[in-house]
Amino acid sequence: MLFGKTLLITGVASGIGARTAELAAHMGADVIGVDLRRPQAAAGAFIEADLASAEGVAGLLARLPRRIDALCNVAGISGTLGAATTLAVNFYGLRALSEQVAPRLREGGAIVNVASIAGFGWRANLERAKLLSEEPGFPDVAAVAAKYGVKDEECYPVSKEALLVWTFRAAHQPLFRERGIRVNAVSPGPVETPILTEFRRVLGDARVDDDIARVSRAGTSPDIAPPILFLCSDGARWINGANLAVDGGLEASINAQVLGF
Ligand SMILES: NC(=O)c1ccc[n+]([C@@H]2O[C@H](COP(=O)([O-])OP(=O)(O)OC[C@H]3O[C@@H](n4cnc5c(N)ncnc54)[C@H](O)[C@@H]3O)[C@@H](O)[C@H]2O)c1
Asked: pLDDT grade, residue 186 (50/70/90)?
């Protein structure tokens, strides 16, 4: 399904991004990987870029080919670097890259955003998520964090809530929709990657252990990569503006508790 397609994948130096790049290359895609750090074994081409700033995104754009089939926004950070940097990487950098790559995406192409079960609260916190997702351009992230009172300890979930709301909206934004570019999200639960140790510090052991206990084990990168690539493929051509839980049933369990069924 991906043979001969060009996939731009961020966060390829570790965890979910590395596995997604490896699997895509295995399936015959031409992979252009992006990360802050050079991967130990790059699957395809690699471009070093920092997605936390407008300059970093612009520098990356200048090095990309004119035609891309799909963009997988996998790069992300846990929140330990504070609200401003976390909003920059997890949301504003991702959005800037998506909007700037859009003209190079072929008609019927796809964008897949890796969000998280941590963004589950987007409905409860809708007003803030809407306002964050509406801030134009690549804003001054420190000023945005201050304006909406985003505290360091909550910045990771807040960044993913904004990402989910933007995903739903982007699917209907003319920039993407007029050329049939689908925009979807994948939301993992806890996954055994280097970031999980940091989540334990940010979210607390109790929250992470409870999430894992609900579904018997943590996920692994090989659990998450195939659904990301499915959403890139033409097999997902009628899936747009969706958030796919890839969490062994965690979201269903939380829904049952929160909604009472
Ligand atoms: N592991 C989990 O438990 C889990 C759960 C839910 C969602 N996620 C999400 O999955 C995605 C991938 O996380 P992972 O688990 O593979 O973590 P990871 O730490 O293994 O990989 C993240 C990658 O992103 C890169 N990155 C970070 N900041 C960057 C920047 N400014 N510019 C470019 N690249 C940058 C890192 O260098 C790293 O290679 C993230 O968006 C994360 O929020 C992870």
From this structure: very high
The answer to whether 86 touches 155, Cβ cutoff 8 Å, is yes
Six-digit token string for 5: 């397609």
Pairing of strands 182-188, 45-48: unpaired
Question: Which residues' Cβ are closer than 6 Å to ligand 1?
Answer: 10-11, 13-17, 35-37, 50-52, 74-77, 89, 114, 116, 188, 190-191, 193-196, 199
Q: Give me the DSSP letters along 153-188.
A: GGHHHHHHHHHHHHHHHHTTSHHHHTTT-EEEEEEE
156 noted as active-site residue:
yes
Structurally, what CATH architecture does the domain formed by 6-259 represent?
Answer: 3-Layer(aba) Sandwich (3.40)
Q: Where are the domains of the chain?
A: 6-259
| Per-chain mean pLDDT for the chain | 97
